[in-house]
Design brief:
- There is one protein chain.
- This protein is mainly alpha-helical and about 575 residues long.
- Among the domains are: about 190 residues, Serine Threonine Protein Phosphatase 5, Tetratricopeptide repeat, CATH 1.25.40.390; about 110 residues, no CATH class.
- About 40% of the residues lie in helices and about 5% in strands.
- It has 20 helices and 14 strands.
- The longest helix has 29 residues.
- The N and C termini lie close together (about 5 Å).
Length: about 575
């Protein structure tokens, strides 16, 4: 009999007193007494969801990064972690347990149910602030739930969906409660939730509302000290676009094109509007080169224009993650279990700001090669994030501006806009079109403009920065990386030849794999890179070699790695 288990709640959360949220009694029955009995408990209840996010924050890093191209285990590593690295069976491995994501989902379901119960109990008689905040709290909970399922899908390839408020353990074979979904099903269910929201608290609540926590702390004018709380919840656009990009793997051509069109239009619109409103927010500009370490070297948000959702921790309140323990070799850090593989470092050029020569992502600490981007930076000789190394609890980004640029390039590629995709990946619009908007071509494909008006819709847009500032220099350019030599077609080709080239499957695949190679360079140690390879493997005939060819270099003998990937590249776990 398969059953779903729970995890105990952390006692202290973001400085608030503990509540009865998801404490369990000896019979594994949830204690439901006095949960959301008054308005103030709505907020404490929601912050209970954030506790679950803290528990899940580093899970994907230590589960999937040892299997990707960059990390290798040290002699100090626990046997279970070494087994992950060696591609031995993951079923039963403590690092592979999906429980943190299911605990988050249970928490979201329970919070929304209890909030609705409270609303019905007071018959909607709420303060003005509560009336404003309830839809935003629900919307945020929906996105946390979607993020949990998104993580389950991209790591395990399957999940059990449930919407009920579970007060006790239940049999997973109960199809009235649970629906077992493959990755396509997860995408469908999550996108439906993101698009349509939920009927709750007497209203239809969309999934894209944002809660401004600074005004909850200080309704009269906000409190900037809590501004980073506004990033506790993943952004709607990131979740919706990521799920759509995965779903295209399992759709027919027409449906996949519709999803790619959605990603292109909405991500491009979001980026353009963000650039207008924030100057260079979420852009790939020279500013990245100047600020790159500060995206990660922080316990709040050191470089806010790139962060689009993050998990925060506070050592003083016993909110901890394992990043320093696992990555740092210097005393009194306790561990040093993972380090950069020498072979992985060879993929970076000397100028690449993420490479070993620049020492912004990896460095030699205490005589040992270390993955350092979360807790140590040589930028301005700043060194460790805190003097007491054991107190460092770095922020873990969920999404950042780079994610949207990869998604946009991926969508443009699949829509046949190879020139746009190549430009976004390599050195950007500023270098592709010196002189700015006046030189943008008016080429079309199937009656649609190849270069969307959003690339030059406003004089203040930072794609070209005609009013000054930083223009787009591409994903590679913003990291001083090496350009990708991709297939192109001559301007002198016939229209028929250009059309055939635009939709040529081998061309599209070549561009996709270039994006994958750059993704590996960009998202080291963030719990993302391995799953991106899996996405590509799923897209191209379930070809395990897409993964294997990119991870094998770090192994002296990769035969076990190949055998494991050939059998299954998703993480295997029997939920029981």
């Amino acid at each position: 009999m398969k059953k779903l288990f729970y995890m105990p709640l952390l006692a202290v959360l973001l400085g608030f007193a503990s509540c009865q949220f998801f404490e369990t009694d000896p019979d594994n029955v949830l204690n439901e007494d006095q949960y959301i009995a008054k308005e103030s408990e709505m907020y404490r209840g929601f912050l209970g969801i954030i506790t679950r996010m803290q528990e899940a924050g580093d899970h994907a890093i230590f589960l999937t990064d040892p299997r990707s191209n960059y990390m290798e285990t040290t002699g100090n590593a626990p046997i279970a972690l070494q087994n992950l690295y060696r591609y031995e069976s993951t079923d039963g491995n403590e690092y592979a347990d999906p429980r943190p994501y299911y605990a988050l989902i249970v928490s979201c379901n329970d919070f929304m149910t209890k909030l609705d119960d409270f609303y019905q109990r007071v018959d909607g008689a709420l303060s003005d602030s509560a009336k404003v905040h309830i839809p935003r709290l629900v919307s945020s909970a929906l996105r946390h739930k979607v993020w949990g399922y998104y993580m389950l899908g991209r790591i395990y390839g399957e999940a059990y969906w449930y919407d009920t408020n579970m007060t006790e353990l239940d049999n997973l074979d109960n199809d009235k409660v649970f629906t077992k979904l493959d990755m396509k099903g997860i995408c469908d269910y999550c996108i439906d939730l993101l698009d349509n929201g939920v009927e709750l608290c007497g209203q239809r609540i969309p999934a894209n509302l944002e809660m401004d926590w600074t005004y909850w702390v200080n309704p009269m004018g906000g409190n900037a000290a809590y501004k980073h709380w506004n990033l506790m919840t993943p952004r709607w656009i990131n979740l919706r676009a990521e799920l759509a990009s995965w779903r295209t793997n399992y759709e027919d051509e027409a449906a996949a094109r519709a999803d790619w069109q959605w990603v292109r239009d909405n991500v491009l619109r979001y980026l353009t509007e963000s650039m207008v409103n924030g100057g260079h927010w979420y852009s790939c500009t020279m500013q990245i080169i100047l600020e790159y370490p500060n995206i990660f070297w922080t316990e709040q948000v050191a470089y806010e224009p790139q962060i689009m959702g993050a998990v925060f921790y506070d050592y003083q309140n016993k909110q901890t993650n394992r990043l320093v323990q696992y990555f740092c070799p210097e005393y009194p850090a306790d561990g040093y279990y993972l380090k950069p593989a020498e072979k992985a470092l060879e993929i970076y050029t000397e100028a690449d700001i993420r490479g070993p020569k620049q020492r912004l992502v990896c460095n030699t600490l205490g005589g040992q090669l270390a993955f350092s981007k979360y807790y140590y930076t040589r930028l301005n000789n700043q060194g460790y994030l805190r003097q007491n190394i054991f107190e460092i609890q770095p922020t873990i980004p969920l999404f950042r501006g780079h994610d949207l640029h990869f998604l946009l390039a991926e969508a443009e590629n699949h829509l046949g806009h190879w020139d746009v995709a190549k430009t976004l990946l390599n050195t950007g619009l500023l270098n592709r079109f010196p002189g700015g908007r006046l030189t943008l071509p008016a080429d079309s494909l199937d009656g649609q403009a190849i270069w969307s008006e959003y690339y030059w819709a406003d004089e203040s847009v930072n794609w070209f920065a005609p009013a000054g500032g930083y223009g787009d220099i591409g994903i590679v350019g913003a990291n001083r990386g090496k350009e990708y030599d991709l297939p192109v077609i001559s301007d002198d080709a016939t229209d028929a030849e250009k059309l055939a080239f635009a939709y040529d499957k081998e061309r599209i695949k070549a561009y996709d794999l270039a994006l994958a190679d750059e993704y590996l360079k960009e998202f080291t140690g963030e719990g993302k890179s391995y799953s991106y390879l899996v996405k590509m493997a799923e897209r191209y005939g379930k070809d395990y070699k897409i993964v294997f060819d990119r991870v094998k270099a770090k192994y002296a003998d990769a035969s076990q790695v190949e055998a494991s990937l050939q059998e299954k590249y998703f993480i295997d776990w029997t939920l029981e």
